[in-house]
Amino acid sequence: MSQARSLPQSKEALLKSYNKKLKDNIQSMLVNFEEIIKLARMDEDSQISKYTQTEEDQYEMQVRAANIVRAGESLMKSVSDLKQFMILNDFPSVNESIIRNAKNCKSLQQDLDNKLTSLRDEMAIDLFELEDEYYSSAFK
Q1: DSSP three-state, residue 2
Q2: What tens digit of pLDDT does each residue of 94-103 get?
Q3: What domain range includes position 68?
Q4: Burial tier of 21 (Cβ tally within 10 Å: 0-12, 13-18, 19+)
Q5: Which of 70, 65, 86, 68 is nearest to 18 (CA)?
Q6: Are 54 and 118 in the same domain?
Q7: Same domain for 82 and 96?
Q8: 57-69 pLDDT, tens per residue?
Q9: Dist CA 123 CA 115 (whole Å)
Q10: Structural domain tally of the chain?
Q11: What are the DSSP calls for 5-53, one per residue?
């Protein structure tokens, strides 16, 4: 809760709205599932014909199943939104990643600079030896 208090007002309100959506969607899934289970009741004598009652129950199950799917999709969208929120608003982690990448690049640069320097020195020595051989050669 201390982290929530340190967040700005808008972020805290956004997190509260995500929490409310989460509770509403789970409640919707639960209620619709319970109602589908209730539809699997034993036949009762009623004034409605069996075929009509079956059609009505089937239609209600389809609607409730669609409500469950809608609530599930809404939950998946909320998860995606929360991931995006955390990625975009997790500045300490982003800064740490940038610093780590900068250190890796600097160490790689230093390593390459050292290799290039040693290569330059070896080439200079070889070139000096070749020039010495060329200028002291009798076959000029």
Answers
A1: helix
A2: 788 899 999 9
A3: 1-89
A4: middle
A5: 86
A6: no
A7: no
A8: 899 999 999 999 9
A9: 12
A10: 2
A11: HHS-HHHHHHHHHHHHHHHHHHHHHHHHHHHHHHHTPPP---SS-HHHH
